[in-house]
Known about the structure:
It contains six helices and two strands, in the order H-H-H-H-E-E-H-H. It is mainly alpha-helical.
Amino acid sequence: xxxxxxxxxxxxxxxxxxxxxxxxxxxxxxxxxxxxxxxxxxxxxxxxxxxxxxxxxxxxxxxxxxxxxxxxxxxxxxxxxxxxxxxxxxxxxxxxxxxxxxxxxxxxxxxxxxxxxxxxxxxxxxxxxxxxxxxxxxxxxxxxxxxxxxxxxxxxxxxxxxxxxxxxxxxxxxxxxxxxxxxxxxxxxxxxxxxxxxx
Length: 199
């Protein structure tokens, strides 16, 4: 036996790859199930206590997307390299931070800036955005589908797929530059700005 023979990592073992796939499926399924059966991915609306009637939130969906991507890639790198420390880099932190900030600013933008009006009569309930389906909800406001939400969704998916590809190709988290952060920031700020006009 050669002294420099390479040691198999967890993902190369007979059970490791299957266990890795199981963890990834569980991670994704957890967000899908919770998103469907709880208010995890829904807009916050105290006027509508039934979360099932609230539309899905674009900002919360984006944050959940990046949580799944970063966590899933971290699990992959652990099984691939058996490395735990110094795996997550500044790119992952910035992506999660930007998504968290977008979600928080979106909630603030949607909150009324003035004291709430007196409750309307029972036969005149306060208007609230209606839930249709996931895609329509995240791409639409009170005026229907709009381009700034589509732009945010498109770049989130594109950069997410690039992130996953780079992790699989180079076995490390990628490094995004200022231009990419700038583009993502513009998409997020545009979304938050128009969110202010939604009721």
